[in-house]
Amino acid sequence: MDWKIESFAFWLSSLFPTTVHLTQPAGLGLMKCRLMMKLWNKYKVTSIPSLVFVDAVTGKVVCRNGLLVVRDDPKGLEFPWGPKPFAEVVAGPLLRNNRQTTDSSSLEGHYVGVYFSAHWCPPCRSLTRVLVESYRAVKESGQKFEIVFVSADRSEASFKQYFSEMPWLAVPYPDEARRSRLNRLYGIQGIPTLILLDTEGHMITRQGRVEVLNDPECRLFPWHPRPVLELSEANAVQLHEGPSLVLFVDAEEEGELEPAKELIQPIAEKLMAKYKAKEEETPLLFFVAGEDDMTDSLRDYTNLPEAAPLLTILDMSGPCQVRPRRRGDHAGRGEDGYCDFLPFALKGGEV
Fold first, then answer.
1. Structural domains in the chain plus CATH codes
2. What is the spatial distance between Cα 142 and Cα 51, in angstroms, rounded to a whole number?
3. Do you know which CDD domains this protein is assigned to (predicted)?
4. Long-range contacts of 194-198 (CB under 8 A, 24+ apart)
5. pTM of the model
6. What is the per-residue pLDDT across 24-69, written as a single tens digit (0 to 9) for each?
C-alpha cells in the first residue's frame, strides 16, 4: 500500500466519527474526501496537525493557531481565545537595532507591517533585503509607517545578527509569550509573512510579501487589496490558497491586459463588497494572465489548453477545475456569464 494513502486515511479517521477504510464503497470514500478538502480550503489549512477554533453559532474562525493556544494556555484561562486588538497584543517595549527601546504606543497613527521572519530561512533573508529599501522609500515619501519584526530565530544570537540588518522595530527575543501571541493573532503558518495594518490597527492585507516584491518602489502603498491582479511569478503563490478565477488572454506587452481586467473587475468588486459587508475574506481571487513563462507553467501544471481568451476557475488546493464547455462560451456574456461558474467553483464542483 502506498504510504500516502495510509497517512491520508489516518487523518480522515481523526476528523470523522467513523474510520475510513479502503474497503468502503468508492462513492462514500470520495464524498468524505471532498468534505475534507472543503474543510481544508475553508479554514486555509496548509499542514497537519492543525487545530482551528470556530464559533458554532456564526461559523466564523475564532483562532487558526489552536495548537499554539493549547500550548500557551493549557488551563484555558483566556478562553474562548478570540482575536484581540493588535495594540493590546503588541503592548510593551519594542527594540531598535541600536539597543534603544520605545513603547509600542509610538505605533499609534501609523501604518504597521508585522514581519514574521528568521535568519535561518533563505526566502526571509531575500525578502528582508528588498523590504529594507521599500521601508526607506515609504518613510522618505512622508508616510507614517513602521515595521515590527517578530522573530522565529532559533537563538538570541541569530536574532541579534539578523536584526542588525533591519532599520525598524522588533519584539524583544526573550519575550516569547508576546511573539507567540502575535503568531496566534494572525494565524501564521509559514515564513516569511508580512501583515499590513492600517492606522487603526485593522488588517489591510496578509500578502505584504507579494506586494513588496511586485511593487518595490511602493507606488501602491499601503497595498489595499485590488479586485483583479495580473498574474506574476511573485503572486502566483496565492493560487494555492483557494479558488481563483483566471482569464487567459493573448497579451504580451505592458498595458495589453487592461481590457481584460476591466472586463472582470465589476464581478470582482461585487464579490469583494459582498464578503466585506459580512466581515469575511473573499472566497475567490481574480487574475488576468498574458503570454509569458509564468502563464505557460500554469497551463502545463493544470493541463489547460493553449486557447485564448480562456476563462477558468482553478482550485489549486483541491481537485477542482472549472471552465466553459466550449471555447468562447464566456465571451461577451458579462457578469451573468462569469457568475454562472462561481457556485460550482466554491462548492468544489465541475462544469
1. 3-72 (no CATH), 86-214 (3.40.30.10), 229-346 (3.40.30.10)
2. 42
3. TryX_like_TryX_NRX
4. 194/113, 194/114, 194/115, 194/116, 194/127, 194/131, 195/113, 195/114, 195/115, 195/116, 196/111, 196/112, 196/113, 196/222, 196/223, 197/86, 197/111, 197/112, 197/113, 197/114, 198/111, 198/222
5. 0.76
6. 455 556 667 777 777 777 777 777 788 888 888 887 888 887 888 8
